[in-house]
Amino acid sequence: MKVSSRVSPAAPDADVIARVLAGDADAFGVLIQRYEPGLLRFATRMLGSVDAGADAVAEGLVRAYRHLASCREPGRFRTWVYRIVANRCKSHLARRSAGDVSLEDVPAMPDPEDGEAALERAERLAQVSQALSRLSPEKREAFVLKHIEGMSYEEIAAATGARIPTLKMRVHRAREALLEALKEHA
Amino acid sequence: MDPRLHRVLDGELDRDQLPADLRAELERLERATALLAAAPAAGSVAARVLAAVHRPHRALAARVGQWLYERHAVTLKLRPIWSLALAAALALIAVLAGRGTGPAVLAAGEGIAQFVGRFPGAHSVEVVGSFNDWRSGSLPLTDDDQDGVWNAEVVLPAGEHQYMFVVDGEKWVVDPLAGRYVDDGFGRQNALMIVRPVVR
Amino acid sequence: MKVATLLFVVAAGPIGLAAQSVRGRLQGRVPESAIAAVDSLVRAAEMESLPSDPLVKKALEGGAKGVSADRIVLAVRQTAGQLHDARALLRRGQAGEPSADEIASVAAALGRGVPTPLGERMASALPGEPMGPALHAVADLVGHGFAQDSAVDLVVTAGQKGMRGLRLLDVASAAVAELQRGRTHAQAIADVRGGLPDVPSAPPAAPGVLNRLRRPPQGVRSPS
In angstroms, rounded to a whole number, what is the distance separating the alpha carbons of residues A81 and A23? Predict the structure, then answer.
């Protein structure tokens, strides 16, 4: 990926955004590199599909580029771009049955050095993924942002528009549902 | 689930204060989230995003305006399975300019709807409604002088039409100047426009 | 001015859009789990000879707004109910079967909060008058704070003085204009009643720039 040579990969988001808005489109590559892994992880867990997740992230990043000038707090670009991708995920979900998250193409992460452990790990991932897929999209989103993307409740509120007490309730219910699912397969 | 577990996970309580059985539950949950946190084997989308970013993107109104000025002849064979997506790519407008004077020729039973909204700072505004099957991307408003006032004039069948504005592709806004509103059945309101037929 | 001409030539074949199934229109735009229920409601409406396009559009609206399947189905069901009530009202006031457009127009007016008994009163007072514009005129007035009875009386009086169809909307606009000039509701009603049938017509929407006129995508049905 060609990235602007005029922007340091360590530059703060606000500086990179200023660069992009000044006309250096390639500088946007710095932001893509920085946030793509987390966004892909988030969208894949939301949609249960690697391909669908990639589509949602690509659409969201293009939209973020086009509307970059409307990012009112460049220092909070992370929550802003997660919000855009979360909305893309909701659009994708609206086109399917509610809660119908496909598990088929979310592969486990086998450890090539240890066959038996890899199999066990893959099984456990399938169980956990299935439990995640049974959550409502709102609970799934809150849980993934909290425990997989490591956001604070304030950041999740900025990314989703929901109130913190509502988010806490969603995360708590999601944890309970996951623990229950893990107990069933213990 | 024991509330102390939630408090630990929310950073409100130290994990050392949990009894052994709860600590085991905590670890079980943490192992599960660690599995989910492993990034899936997805290829990077960077190339396709940057390709889209570098593609020249003129404002939709400019593209539509350019298209309107060019002559296009399109011959289509209709099939029963012809999708609305294809239909949405084509529009029939017949404009006769009598030496610069005279109105556009509208079919019987058609009128002109004028949509106006003030959205300073917006990057795009479009109108979606019953007249375009609530489909985005077909009826943009324009703000040529960039004063924050967006407008469009649309030929519509005479009668009632429900609609909303969509700002920046995401924010649905009821037209505050509509004067007529109707519950949309989804907890919000649509604006209602009554288009009068142009009198010949 | 340069003439921009777009030619659209249809070569043979049945009208694809008219033949496009309900499911085809909904696929990909409405949650999958709502499609069967909406299709069923549409078929039921068609069997009762009610216009079905407003139901499909309501489902598409819900899909576009990101609403859940359950709420979409509920809204479509409610719309079907409004169409049913509208047709019943129209049948009471006129001989002959009302058209789909009339049913949809009255349903839209009822959807603005005009109570059915008021509609029936108007239908009795103005037999043979298209009820859609008359009811919308009443809704316009009530929306600006005029009492329902006063609104109905004014519109009925206008109709009895020969004002018809969309001109009744001008009656409502005139009363609202009086209100905006500082008159009270009662004064506004009296002023307009006193001037009937000489009420200014709404200015026609003149296209500002001809080549900016747009049309929605081809295949738009009659108003919902």
Answer: 20
* Domain assignment present for C224: no
Residues C96 and C152 both lie in one domain: no
Q: Is residue C11 part of a domain?
A: no
CA C136 to chain A, closest CA, distance in angstroms equals 34
pLDDT band at C3 (very low <50, low <70, confident <90, very high): very low
Indicate whether C68 and C104 sit together in one domain.
yes
Q: Where do the structural domains in chain B lie, given as residue ranges?
A: 3-37, 60-195
Residue C59's domain comprises 22-111
Q: Is the pLDDT of residue C204 over 80?
A: no
Q: Which chains touch B (3 or more CB pairs under 8 A)?
A: A, C
**pLDDT per residue as tens digits for the range B48-57:** 888 888 776 5
Instruction: Read off the pLDDT of each residue in C135-152 and give the average, rounded to a whole number.
Output: 92
Cα separation values, B20 from A10, A141, A176, B25, C5, Å: 43, 30, 19, 9, 79
Q: What is the pLDDT of residues B90-139, one digit of tens each?
A: 433 333 333 333 344 577 788 889 899 889 888 889 999 999 999 988 88
Chain B from 133 to 192: CB within 8 A of any A CB: 168-170
At residue A50, does pLDDT exceed 50? yes
Choose the mutation target among A33, A104, A179, A185 for the interface with B, i.e. most B CBs under 10 Å.
A179
Co-location of C89 and C138 in the same domain:
no
| Closest Cβ–Cβ partner in B82, B112, B139 for C207 | B112
Search chain A and give the residue with CA nearest B45.
Answer: A58
In a domain, C213, yes or no: no
A18 touches chain B (CB under 8 A): no
Tally the domains of chain C: 2
Instruction: Give the ipTM of the model, two decimals please.
Output: 0.82
**Which pTM value belongs to this model?**
0.52
What six digits make up the tokens of C150?
């006063």
Fold of B60-195: Immunoglobulin-like (2.60.40)
φ and ψ at residue B116, rounded to 5 degrees = -135, 140
Q: Which of B1, C1, B39, B173 is nearest to A36 (CA)?
A: B39
Contact call for residues C81 and C105 (beta carbons, < 8 A): no
Note whether C151 and C185 are same-domain residues. Answer: yes
**What domains can be seen in chain A, in order of their start residue?**
1-98 (1.10.1740.10), 108-186 (1.10.10.10)
Four-residue CA torsion sign, C86, C91, C95, C98: positive
What is the pLDDT at residue B35? Answer: 85
What secondary structure does DSSP assign to C150-191, as a single string?
HHHHHHHHHHHTT--TTHHHHHHHHHHHHHHTT--HHHHHHH
pLDDT at B32: 87
CA distance B137 to B126: 7
As given in the structure block, the two tokens for residue A159 are: 């990314």
